[in-house]
Amino acid sequence: MPSRERLQALRYNLIPDHLIGEILTKRWTDNAIPFLVLVAVIALFGTAIPGFFNPFSLQESTRQLGEFAIVVIGLTVVMLGGGIDLSVGSIFALATFASVGSFFILGLPVWAAFLAALATGAVFGAINGYLVGFLRLRAFLTTLVTFIIGRAVFDILVVQFGAAIQMSFASSEAWDFIGDGTFAGLSVPVIAAGLLALVTHVTLTRARIGWHILAVGGSRRSAHNAGIKVRRTVFLTYVFSGLCSGAAGFLIACRLSGAGPGTGAGLEILALTAAVVGGNALGGGRGSVVKGLMGAVIVLVMTNGLIRMGYGTGTNQMVLGIMLAIAVTIDIRWLKNRHKVLNEVYVAPVYLKMGETQSAEPHSGTPYALNNRLAAAAPIGLGALEGPEDVILDADDHLYCGTRHGEIVRFFAPDYTRSEVFAHVGGFPLGLAFDRDGNLISCVGAMGLYKIAPDRTVTRLSAETRRSLTSVQDDARLRDPNDLDIAPDGRIYFTDSTKRYDAHDWTLDSIENRGTGRLLVYDPRDGSTKTLLDGYRYTNGVCMAHDGKSLYFAESWACRIHRYWLEGPKAGTAECVIKDMPGYTDNINRASDGTYWMAWLGMRTPSFDLSLRHPAMRKRMTRRLPQDDWLFPNINTGGIVKFDDSGRILQTFGDLTGENHPMVTSMREHKGELFIGGILNNRIGRYRIEGAAPEWTGMRAYWGSRA
User: Domain Strictosidine synthase conserved region spans what residues (predicted)?
Assistant: First the structure.
């Protein structure tokens, strides 16, 4: 290998560039920045302020945090619904006055004071919700108006009744406990905030109303078109925010036993800053309660810390303003440009030098030399199918295939001119196999492993496997389940071609050529899915060996066939049995004479082989050229290969005319004929095999005479 290529191999194969793209695609990265800010703020003020972590100091701070967090949770829900509520400060102040007024002036019990606070919050929240949700007024201006009116009403009430509150001698153990007591070392506001956060989080992520709120925040027009009652949903978010502000007002009323001109002043700015700094989007539809809580801690620690360090109100407001400006800028710019950044960094090609191969040219004299035999294949379902990637026949000789429209189509024997939609699975059904009980098992691209019972009931068997602790990739989800086969004990062995791309992005995986394909097994006895092998370049076809003690699987982009041992001294290991083929390997199936059929989905070309040795060129190509101008593997011409257990090539078949089956992804032998599928074809091919056993079927080969 030339020194330049050696350097390229070291640079692109050892430096994990792809991890940047993997990390940026994860939803948890939105939490990473506020979490790091939270840690930095706590560390900064914890070291700068003596006694910062003193238990008494922390207890008092957490009381404030509990009250503040409840307000932030309410505002977060409004923002997730696509709105904004600037009136939380005035609602908070009015609820505080309603609580102390009910308890100290009217002499009502504590529970009545609590209900008065909630009623105050609910009324103002309902006013906001009606104006913004039903009358469709601007949320910013509307809540600004209610903030001004609410603040004015509060100031009037404080001036009018402040003295009466101060002169009251009303007392209650419950009131004092809520304000100053603890339960298991935690103050009531902290417990209340924790319970509210938990219930709100579960509602947003698991309940229908929560999904509706997020949908409305993401796109009101789309939510309306989907049948969601947008106006009612928006109304409820404001009512919830008002209730949260009311509850927080009651808690501070119990703690301070009074209300003054400064109650709730600036709270709306603090709450808004906390929600945005935590990572909740101003535009709605993106965020969480957890982000709101992180923002609440950041803002409260920072404001209290600055005060304890001797800085005045002006400094506090300036710092909050700077934090809010930075958070808004990051939110807007990142939301707008995230996909551009991902396009720049996600595709990270690696270096690969393909091995020398024998020629597949006609009359070249090699075992791989193509011919024109498949041109004689008769079409089935011509023009009525789109993308029959795999084909299979049942015990009654009926023919099945998947289509690009998510359907399993059945053609009736013996002439296969009549057909019906056997089942609608969704996605893109790829590999097919019948189990011992006649259930049709299918790998469905981007969805998982599915079972279609004889009565056409569709059941999902698996959509994920156990996540590996060392992988940054989302290797739990099945992204591109491709082909499968079933062992005599009922376990289903199947491939997940790539962990980085969904089925429709196979071209990106071929250009990147990184080993992210794997072999998995699904055990119907306990419903578990486990990864057996990993690190292959686009794992594809799977076929049980005739003796049932091993299986073959294809590694498409490396043009290799591997054998994985299930039993014997090599159990649990794999070995390459055919390498450096001139075509890209696809599905593998049994032949009647104890050998195996294998599909070539396309043929290697010198240009693409050369590009694999230049990852920098492929990287620039994906960033600078439109996709129509990219260099892909050639999948317009393929064929069929027959091989035995030793890896010896016995026969090849092709269609040099390019009319019937130039591209092949699967084939099944059945009663002396080959039935041929192709992911880009609009038909199934039917080809008579010379000298094949006329009564042999795959079903009997797998499951015996009962099939």
Answer: 482-568
pLDDT at 56: 64
| Residue 587 to residue 640: CA distance in whole angstroms | 10
User: Do 398 and 448 fall into the same domain?
Assistant: yes
Residue 530 belongs to domain spanning: 373-461+478-501+515-603+635-701
CA contacts within 13 A on the Cβ side of 121: 33
The CA-atom distances, in angstroms, between 242 and each of 71, 143, 165, 693 are 9, 11, 24, 78
Nearest to 347 by CA among 520, 498, 559, 558: 498
What lies within 8 Å, CB to CB, of 178 at 6+ separation is 110, 188, 251, 254, 255
The pLDDT of residue 19 is 85
Q: Are 215 and 260 found together in one domain?
A: yes
Cis preceding linkage at 414, omega within 30 = yes
Number of H helices, E strands in the chain: 19, 26
The gap from C-alpha 260 to its chain's centroid, in whole angstroms, comes to: 49
DSSP calls for 545-601 = -TTSSEEEEEETTTTEEEEEESSSTTTT-EEEEE-S-SEEEEEEEE-TTS-EEEEEE
Enter the pTM of the model: 0.79
Query: What is the C-alpha to C-alpha distance for residues 135 and 188, in angstroms, rounded to an integer?
Result: 38
Q: Residue 401 in contact with residue 387, Cβ under 8 Å? A: no
Flag whether 366 is in a domain: no
Q: Is residue 139 part of a domain?
A: yes
Q: Which residues contact 484 (CB under 8 A, 6 or more apart)?
A: 431, 432, 433, 441, 442, 443, 449, 492, 493, 494, 495, 542
Rounded Cα–Cα distance for residues 279 and 283 (Å): 12
Residue 700 burial (CB count, 10 A):
13
Contact present, 431 and 542 (Cβ < 8 Å): yes
User: pLDDT (tens digit, 9 = 90+) per residue, 517-568?
Assistant: 999 999 999 999 999 999 999 999 999 999 999 999 999 999 999 999 999 9
Q: How many CB atoms lie within 10 A of CB 348?
A: 21
Q: Report the candidate in 393, 394, 390, 414 with the shortest Cα–Cα distance to residue 402.
A: 390
